[in-house]
Design a protein that fits this description.
Blueprint: E1 19-22, H1 44-50, E2 56-59, E3 62-65, E4 80-83, E5 90-93
Parallel strand pairs: 1-2, 2-4, 3-5
Length: 110
């Protein structure tokens, strides 16, 4: 009998994680692509919506408040949300909305 040879092939390149940038207005706009520091989204929620597993949402320096920047839900996505220049450079202001928190973790996020 002849030996059996099994070959597993993969087409395409491995997935590359994307970075999505967010900055408070006037620099940020949710109409931007979010893919560069020069064209960031205005809200953290828009960055989370655009991101997929393995991607990062990078918050540029500033204060983020209001509905689309609080009570944030990643919907279980395996994403990283971080400040570009460290924690002291970004504030998520939960005082601008009643009965609010910065994040709502309930889908196994870590």
């Amino acid at each position: 009998t002849l030996p059996i040879l099994t070959i597993f092939g993969f087409s395409g390149s491995p997935a590359v994680a994307d970075d999505f940038f967010v900055a408070p207005p006037p620099l940020g706009s949710d109409a931007n692509t979010g893919l560069t520091e020069a064209a960031p989204f205005a809200t953290i929620a828009r960055g989370i919506l655009a991101a997929g597993d393995g991607d990062s949402v990078i918050l540029l320096d500033g204060t983020y408040g209001g509905v689309a920047n609080t009570n944030l839900d990643t919907a279980g996505k395996a994403i990283t949300i971080r400040s570009q220049n460290g924690a002291p450079s970004v504030v998520i202001d939960c005082a601008t909305t009643v009965d609010t928190r910065a994040f709502n973790f309930h889908s196994g996020e870590t």
